[in-house]
Amino acid sequence: MVLRKFCPNQHVDSLAGIDLEALAQAGIKGIIVDVDNTLVEWDKEVLSEASVSWVKRAKELGLGVCIVSNGKEERVARFAGELEVPGFAKAIKPRKKGFLKALEVLGTKPEETAIVGDQLFTDVLGGNRTGLYTIWMTPLSDKELFSTKCMRRLEQQITRKLEERGMLCRETSRDEEKAG
Ligand SMILES: [Mg+2]
């Protein structure tokens, strides 16, 4: 079913809402993270303390962290540098290519890797296509590219359908989630 490709394994309100300990215990070894409206507001240039400490905590738990963004090289490189993690820009998510590069750098298999991002059409769809554990986060800000705003309308329609079918806001095992 097409809808399933848009179905995240988890839906959270913020990075802080992600139970990193539980992920590590469940066998997740690496986390791919989006930049705009996930790590930092789309129109901001400074990482929040919350984002910095979240990445730090992930590393403390032994999780590898890698940025994959559709954004510009310079912006992505700067945040990756500040967080001391690898980063790939202009990834053209939902294409798999950027995710596959991240897996190579992290040294993890898809099933050992989570993706955290704020868009169903890029982060979740691309993550599901790559076989990752997908975590959909409420965007940090409602300011975003015009093209993104347009996609949000479609995203809302899909979200409604997922909710109607009870496919959203529940944590399910990978097997259960991806089986059908
Ligand atoms: Mg984003």
Describe the fold and architecture.
The chain is α/β, with parallel strands linked by helices. The chain has a single domain, classed as 3-Layer(aba) Sandwich (Rossmann fold). 42% of the residues lie in helices and 13% in strands. It is built from seven helices and six strands. The protein has helices spanning 20-25, 49-60, 73-83, 97-106, 120-130, 146-164, 174-179, and strands at residues 10-12, 30-33, 64-68, 87-88, 113-117, 133-137. A six-stranded parallel β-sheet has the order 1-6-5-2-3-4. The radius of gyration is 15 Å and the shape is globular. The structure holds magnesium ion. The site of magnesium ion has 7 residues, from loops. Magnesium ion (MG) binds at residues 34, 36-38, 117-119.
* Main pleated-sheet profile: 6 strands, parallel
Shape: globular
CATH architecture, please?
3-Layer(aba) Sandwich
Q: Whole-number radius of gyration? A: 15 Å
How many separate domains? 1
The order of strands across the largest sheet is 1-6-5-2-3-4
